[in-house]
Amino acid sequence: MKIFESHNVGETSKIAQEFAKTLKEGSIVALSGDLGAGKTAFTAGIAKALGVREAVTSPTFTIVNQYDGDMTVYHFDAYRLENVTPDDCDWMDDYFFSDGVCIIEWAKNIEAVLPRGYISVQIEKDSALGEDYRKITIDETGETKC
Description:
The chain has helices at residues 9-20, 39-49, 93-96, and strands at 2-6, 28-32, 64-67, 73-77, 101-105, 119-125, 134-139. The protein is an alpha/beta fold. It has a seven-stranded mixed β-sheet, with helices on one face. A hairpin with an 8-residue loop joins strand 6 (119-125) and strand 7.
């Protein structure tokens, strides 16, 4: 488990870009954090490191966006999904078992259908340390829940 501290969006992006160097085809990144914690900013940092040139936006209404770069990035937003079962989300397997990287915001909402071995990234705000302060915990062991 690795813990990072960020004091602004630029630092969050740099942390994500460094983290992206550890990803490989088939990696699944499960993001958790409150609204406005920086999940999309973290995703944008990963995408940038993987050669994506277009702007990354949260796919709240489409559920998944695809970005092509040196490696394909599938960016999910599971905010609107609740009480999912494997049958509800069997379409996700096409992404989870692809040659791209899956990054899932609000992953706890679909935790029941995530394949084993995903990487958990938790982003926490702490206003006592500043409005833009973030604690970013990356657990690559798969032991921490999203």
